[in-house]
Amino acid sequence: MADPNHFDVLVLGTGVAESLLAAAYARKGHTILHLDARPHYGAASAALSFHDLTSLSTLGCYTDLRHATDPDHATWLANKSREFALELNPKLLYARGSVVDLFATTGVGRHLDFKLTEATRVHRGTAPGGDQALLVPASKEDVFASKDLSLADKRRLMRFFTTSMAMDAPPATEGSFADYLTQNGLTGALQDVFVHGVALSRTPGSSLPVAEGMARAHKYLQSMGRFGASPFLLAQYGVGAEVAQALCRVAAVYAGVYILGRPITSVLWDADAQVWRVKVDLDPAQEFTAKRLVTNPGHITAASSASVGAPTYGALVVTQRPVREDTGLGIYVVPPPADGEGEAVQVVHACSELKVCPDGTFVVHFRGSSEADVDRAMALLLPCPEDILHTTRFVHRPNAAGSDEPVVSAADGAPMTVVSWPTADLDMDVDLDAVLDMWRAETGLDTLLEPLPNPDEEQIVAEAQQVQAEGLEEPATSA
Amino acid sequence: MSAPQPPAAGTPVQVKLVLLGQAAVGKSSLVLRFVRNEFQENREPTIGAAFLTQKCKVDDKIVKFEIWDTAGQERFHSLAPMYYRNALAAIVVYDVTSAQSFDKAKSWVKELQLQGSPNVVIALAGNKIDIIKSEGEGAREVPADEAQAYANEAGLLFFETSAKDGTGVEAIFNDIAKKIPFEQILAKANAPRQGVNLHEAQPTPPQNCAC
After folding, report:
1. Pfam families annotated for this entry (chain B) (predicted)?
2. Interior angle at CA A176, CA A173 and CA A182, nearest 5
3. Which of A245, A462, B5, B96 is the most exposed place for a label (fewest CB within 10 A)?
4. Is A141 near chain B, with CB under 8 Å?
5. What is the pLDDT of residues A359-404, one digit of tens each?
6. In whole angstroms, what is the distance from residue A126 CA to residue A376 CA?
7. Alpha-carbon distance A213 to B150, whole Å?
């Protein structure tokens, strides 16, 4: 029998990217040892109890966590701690995106509970309150029904929807997305709706290349109507953490070994034996070896981190009043001021239906390119401070490294893959596509995961075999 | 959304059932005995099945168990919360020839009561009873009355089982099926604003925009 303490691949961290590779390697028949020193799945994407979140000052790429709890509600929140599943950077799944495709084709999605968002709205102007926000159409009916749009605008928008939908490739036009929209008669509020709502871009249209803007808009339009009007899905209990758990389950089912919540004392490349040596404190410490290492940037030095990206600023707000009474699960966008510089602030609004917070509370996530932008958006959408139970602010640094013990130094010739942290993009496909690129470069394969066997089909085959073997009619328990 | 309707007669009610217990007490073997009526001596830990399904008839209803095995994630106590989630039933397994596995079973019951659904039906299974039959009571480390007393106190169903010869296996699943709160499941299934099932979506182009 093979050495049970030697593995093909050692995976450090149970974030989405690491878990994708763990599942991919395991499904291909490689032996996997998957470690996370934290007691929960998800690494930076973990969905935490109120207590666990508020005990942290750093979580992977999320740094400078600052927590402020309303003293009158501190005890109530502490008692409800476990009813929260708080993620710092919840991502959206496009109904026709690569994550949903992967989950639908492989069957991994069978055990996740998804919800459609109800609406995306763009808050223009300076008057506070969610009722000031314009609905981003999620169907042609929405365009017709809009009270915010003139008849001429409706016609223009409809024409643009139709031509964009039919477009196979982005228009070969130079210049910015804003220019392109202006050429098509979409200006002012309509342009904001298109750039920040439909294309879901934080970057203003004037600095967004037309190809990127149209690609993003096209994806939104394609995703409408697949599972319902809304193009976006969220997973209950925290998107990233659930996706990571589902993928780890796949790796485990294919014989992956999982050790969470135990200190990892050292990870070293042994150049003589050509293996990675990892020591885990299993009381007593135990050493495992592996041919290859996959890790998130938490375990490497900044110098060997390939992740790039400017920091973004985030706030997670627990409130007892929703931004709008009619919307539990929603997206809001606050565009940059008409005259000013800067980027839009994106807001993910969740309610207890998503199983991330207790009944009667709402979790509102803000992200922007500066603290000031986030403050401005918070003041517009959550104008009543007395409704706010808790706020956690943080900085998202995609190039952060070395946040987790132990830090591995890359050695020449040591087989090692460093995945990226989650990006600031709301679209989770961006993270998956980056992993797929790594997998392709590493293995030459275009598919991360082959479909998993469907137990129902297997069951039918097994029952058929049983019937054949016994020469009897169908088992009595069959429907 | 159409008005709630009772499911057609014979439509199985899907019930997620999870297995828990120390490594090598015979969790997978119990499932394979129940689902495929087979047993393999010294089998390797389960590979390649996320879950198995089997139907059980209770009166005029059919329960379709979706049975989740730990896939080895229990070995270092690294089961994901997702594993327990939405499980309406659980079988906590120990080995009647190992007192340590019984202690472990008790800690899994506690974990389930903490992490699991509030009304989860839990059954305790003392497995490998065939060893007692062949080697005598001297091989036993967990007395049946002690386990029964614990099960009564903790509100669990209790069976001694053998995946090897089949003792108690059908009975444990049947008794669990009888305790499943059907009304609650059906009420939930008819609740408004259902979640999205990726596998039921029509892979057609968005209709809203096809003019």
Report:
1. Ras
2. 90
3. B5
4. yes
5. 999 999 999 999 999 999 999 999 999 999 999 999 999 888 888 9
6. 9
7. 64
- CATH architecture of the region B13-181: 3-Layer(aba) Sandwich (3.40)
Average confidence (pLDDT) over A259-285: 95
What value of ipTM does the predicted structure carry? 0.85
Instruction: Give the tokens for residue A184.
Output: 């098509």
- Where chain B has pLDDT below 50, the residues are 1-4, 202-211
Which pLDDT value is given to residue A477?
40
CA A396 to the chain's CA centroid: 14
Phi/psi-derived region of residue A13, left when phi > 0, alpha when psi is between -120 and 50, beta in every other case: left
Whether A263 and A281 have beta carbons less than 8 Å apart is answered as yes
**A267, A276 Cβ separation under 8 angstroms:** yes
Q: What is the pTM of this model?
A: 0.90
Taking an 8 Å cut-off on Cβ atoms, the answer to whether A225 and B37 are in contact is: no
pLDDT value for A21 = 97
- CA-CA distance, A240 to A252, in Å (whole number)? 18
Beta-carbon separation of B50 and A250 below 8 A: yes
CA distance B198 to A415: 36
A442 vs A301, higher pLDDT: A442
Q: What is the residue whose two structure tokens read 């499943």?
A: B180
Among A449, A456, A477, A478, the strongest candidate for a mutation testing the B interface, having the largest count of B CBs within 10 A, is: A477
Residues 6 or more apart whose Cβ sits within 8 Å of residue A346: A200, A202, A331, A332, A333, A366, A367, A368, A426
Contacts with A70 (C-beta within 8 Å, 6 or more apart), sequence order: A388, A389, A390
The residue extents of the domains of chain B are 13-181
The pLDDT score that the predictor gives to residue B191 is 63
- The DSSP bridge partners found for residue A409 are none
Handedness of CA B21, B22, B26, B28 (dihedral sign): positive
DSSP B147-204: HHHHHHHHT-EEEE--TTT-TTHHHHHHHHHHHS-HHHHHHHHT-SS--B-TTTS--S
Is the CA virtual torsion A41, A44, A46, A51 positive or negative? positive
Residue A385: both structure tokens together: 């401070």
What pLDDT score does B7 carry? Answer: 54
* Cα–Cα nearest to A135, from A13, A266, A229, A61: A229
Can you tell me which residue has the tokens 């207890």?
Answer: A352
Which positions in chain B touch A223 (Cβ < 8 Å)?
Answer: 206
- DSSP sequence for A346-382: EEEEEEGGGTSS-TT-EEEEEEESSHHHHHHHHHHH-
A52: helix, strand or coil = helix
Q: Does A140 touch chain B (CB under 8 A)?
A: yes
Bridge partners of residue A277, in order along the sequence: A268, A289
pLDDT of residue B43: 64
Decide if pLDDT at A349 tops 90: yes
Strands (E), chain B: 13-20, 52-58, 61-68, 89-95, 121-127, 157-160
Residue of chain B nearest A82, judged by CA positions: B115
Instruction: List % helix, strand, coil for chain A (3-state, nearest 5).
Output: 35, 25, 40
- Write out the H or E segment, with its range, that includes residue A267: strand A264-270
